[in-house]
Each structure stands twice: as structure tokens, then as C-alpha cells.
Specification:
The protein is of the alpha+beta class. It is built from 5 helices and 3 strands. The protein has a single domain, classed as Alpha-Beta Complex (Sufe protein. Chain: A), CATH 3.90.1010.10. Helix 1 packs across helix 2, helix 2 packs parallel to helix 5 and helix 4 crosses helix 5. The longest helix is centred in the last third of the chain and has 17 residues. The radius of gyration is 14 Å and the shape is globular.
């Protein structure tokens, strides 16, 4: 796909994020921020029987950070914890599909880092 198509994919996930909103009674709730550009993300997880049954996020920030969180939630929703724990940074970056500067990498990976932190006790 061309960069234009990937940018449209990112903008669509920014404008209409999947799984956005607060979750009542999550199993885990974790927040993180990127102080360099002001991005913040809170991830809510409902974990049952070794699976992420539901995932939601809230936050504010640039298009890359918010779209990345939306895309990540779609990647892991309904998946086994072991599979989710095995995901690396490059899996999310590949899903985004565009080259990012080092500063934008921090934006793109914020939700990934918050998710990994949230799963550290499992």
C-alpha cells in the first residue's frame, strides 16, 4: 500500500477510534504519558480465562498516538494473553504501515508500552 493509504488508515483510526471509552469494572486499568508531546493513554482490560475479553482506551494526543491505541486494541481484543505478551513493538509498527521519526516512534508505541505494563502481573 502507498503511504497515502496508510495515512488515511491512521487518520480514520484517529477520527473514529475503535474501542474508545471508559470501561466499568476493568480487571486492570493502566495509564501512561509521553511528556515530550503531551500524549496520554489509559488502557482498560477485562481479562477472563487467560484472554483479553474486552479492551478500551481513553486519552488525548496526536493522531499517531491515538490511532496507534485504536489499532492496538483491535489487534489484541479476544486474544490469549500469551499471544498478546509475545507481540513486539514491530508488530504494532507494521500495522501502522508508515515510517516514523524517532520522536513519532514514542507516540506510536505509547499504547503498546501501557498495555505491556498492564499485563506485567499476569
Amino acid at each position: 500500500m502507498s503511504n497515502d493509504i496508510y495515512m488515511e488508515f491512521i487518520l480514520e483510526n484517529y477520527r473514529n477510534p475503535k474501542n474508545y471509552g471508559v470501561m466499568d469494572n476493568p480487571t486492570v486499568k493502566k495509564s501512561g504519558a509521553n511528556p515530550l508531546c503531551g500524549d496520554d493513554i489509559t488502557i482498560y482490560l477485562k481479562i477472563e480465562n487467560g484472554k483479553i475479553q474486552d479492551i478500551r482506551f481513553t486519552g488525548k494526543g496526536c493522531a499517531i498516538s491515538q490511532a496507534s491505541a485504536s489499532i492496538l486494541t483491535e489487534m489484541v481484543k479476544g486474544k490469549d494473553l500469551e499471544y498478546v505478551k509475545s507481540l513486539g513493538e514491530n508488530d504494532l509498527l507494521s500495522a501502522l504501515g508508515i515510517e516514523l521519526s524517532p520522536a513519532r516512534l514514542k507516540c506510536a508505541l505509547l499504547s503498546y508500552k501501557v498495555l505491556k505494563d498492564a499485563l506485567s502481573g499476569f
